[in-house]
Amino acid sequence: MKAAIYPGSFDPVTYGHIDIIRRAAEMFDVLIVSVLDNKAKTPLFSVDERVNMLKDVTREIPNVEVDSFSGLLVDYAKEKGIHVAIRGLRAVTDFEYELQIAQTNRLLSQGQLDSIFLTTSLEYAYLSSSSVREIASFGGDVSMCVPPVIEAMMHEKFKDKYRTQD
Ligand code: ADP
């Protein structure tokens, strides 16, 4: 069985991520999309919320599993017995950062974890979770960026935020 992990923050999952998930799922028997529980960041959505969002939007892709992990990707991959990490590249600016992570992961895993990069489909090249969060925080329209279910959850989340600030 050929398996790969697609790790990320997915805060929230966008059409850009979904495009990478669909394409990677066609290349592997199993694709595990895994939410990184990064204690150093304060996410908009909890890990559980992000896992549930991903499950929702990947429901129709049978060979996709959704999971979460904390700590090093190399340790998680070893535990799962997986040797490939998928990452998406949008622009040159992603490249430098991604190259550094990929080389570090190869080193740390003693060559056991390789990275495969999929270039973004052009229509999603501008999309990032952070810009989606910013637009939604001002009540803007994010319907071109995320599926309707995620859009609804974002508006709900920001409504809660405003309410707690009152
Ligand atoms: P991270 O915090 O690990 O960068 P993200 O959720 O922002 O997590 O992104 C996960 C992966 O998906 C990264 O490899 C990122 O480059 C890629 N990605 C994010 N947005 C897009 C997009 N619009 N098109 C293609 N790849 C993307």
Question: Which small compounds were modeled alongside the protein?
Answer: adenosine-5'-diphosphate
Strand percentage lies at 15-25%
Rg on CA atoms, Å: 16 Å
**Helical content (DSSP H or I, runs of 4+):** 40-55%
Largest sheet: 3 strands, parallel
Q: What general outline do the C-alpha atoms trace?
A: globular
Largest beta sheet: strand ordering: 1-2-3
**Ends distance:** 53 Å
Question: What is the helix tally?
Answer: 6
How confident is the prediction overall: mean pLDDT? Answer: 94
Structural category: alpha/beta
Total number of strands: 5
- Ranges where pLDDT stays below 50 over 5 or more residues in a row are none
H/E series: EHEHEHEHEHH
Oligomer: single chain
Question: Could you explain how this protein is built, in words?
Answer:
This protein is α/β, with parallel strands linked by helices and 166 residues long. It is 46% helix and 19% strand. It is built from 6 helices and 5 strands, in the order E-H-E-H-E-H-E-H-E-H-H. It has helices at residues 15-27, 47-57, 73-80, 92-108, 129-137, 148-165; strands spanning 3-8, 30-36, 64-69, 84-89, 114-119. Bound molecules: adenosine-5'-diphosphate (ADP). Adenosine-5'-diphosphate (ADP) binds next to helix 1 and strand 4.
